[in-house]
Amino acid sequence: MNMLRAIILFVTVFTLPVHASENKDKLKVGLFHTPASFSATLSAIDDENRIVLPSATWFEPSEVNAWVLFISSDEDRMALPEIALQVVEAVEASPNPLVRVSVDLQNGQSLRVQVNNLAKTSRSVDFQGCLAALDIASVAYGESYVTPENIEVFCSEH
Fold first, then answer.
1. Taking residues 58-70, what's their average pLDDT?
2. How far is CA 71 from CA 19, 97, 110, 115, in A?
3. How far apart are the first and last CA of the chain?
4. Which of 49, 106, 108, 156 makes a 20 to 30 Å CA pair with 126?
C-alpha cells in the first residue's frame, strides 16, 4: 500500500474544541498560505518558544510534526502536494472552517494537519489566522488556547 492510501485510511477528524496532547516538546510546523495574523498571534502567545516555524514554504511530513494549511480556492488546492491534497479532500465534508486531523503515516510517524477552509466562514482571513494560531498553540502546550477570552484578546481586531 503506498503512503497516500495509508494516510487516507488512517485519518481521524477532530473539530474544535479539541483536547490537546500532553507532548511538551517543540512543535515544528510546515505552513501553506498562512496570513500574517497567524505568525503575529504565535509571537504573542508562544512564550516558551515551543512552536518552530520553518522559513521554507513547504516541508515533507518527515521534516515536521504538523502542517497548517489555508485553502480559499481551487488554485490553492491544486498548489498543494498530492499528500496534503488528499488530507484536505478527506476532511471536505466537515462544516467547520478549521479542522485538525491526525494522520498516521506508514513509517509510524504521526502528523497533525490543520486545514483552514476560508470558503466555509464569513470571518476575515486574519481572524482565521489568529484562531489557527491559538489552535496550534493548544497542540504545542497541551492545553486549550481556544477560549472566548483568548479570542477576544488576540483576535478581536480582525
1. 87
2. 24, 10, 22, 7
3. 44
4. 49
- Whether the CB-CB separation of 112 and 65 falls below 8 Å is answered with yes
* Grid cell listed for 153: 484578546
Paired sense of beta strands 98-104 and 110-117, if any: antiparallel
Average per-residue pLDDT in the chain? 83
Residue 96: band (very low, low, confident or very high) from pLDDT cuts 50, 70, 90: very high
The Cβ-side half-sphere exposure at 20, using a 13 Å CA radius, reads 19
Q: What pLDDT, on the 0 to 100 scale, is given for residue 1? A: 37
Cα–Cα distance measured from residue 35 to residue 39, given in angstroms and rounded to the nearest whole number = 8
- For 18, the grid coordinates are 479539541
CB 69 within 8 A of CB 84: yes
- pLDDT tens, 10-63? 333 333 333 344 434 799 999 999 999 999 999 999 999 999 988 776 778 888
Question: From CA 95, how far away is CA 155, in angstroms rounded?
Answer: 21
Find cell 492510501 and name the residue.
Answer: 5
CB-based contact 116:128 (threshold 8 Å): yes
> Would you give the distance in Å from CA 112 to the centre of its chain?
7
SS3 track for 37-76: HHHHHHHHHCCCCCEECCCCCCCCHHHCCEEEEEECCHHH
Query: At which residue does the C-alpha cell 482571513 appear?
Result: 125
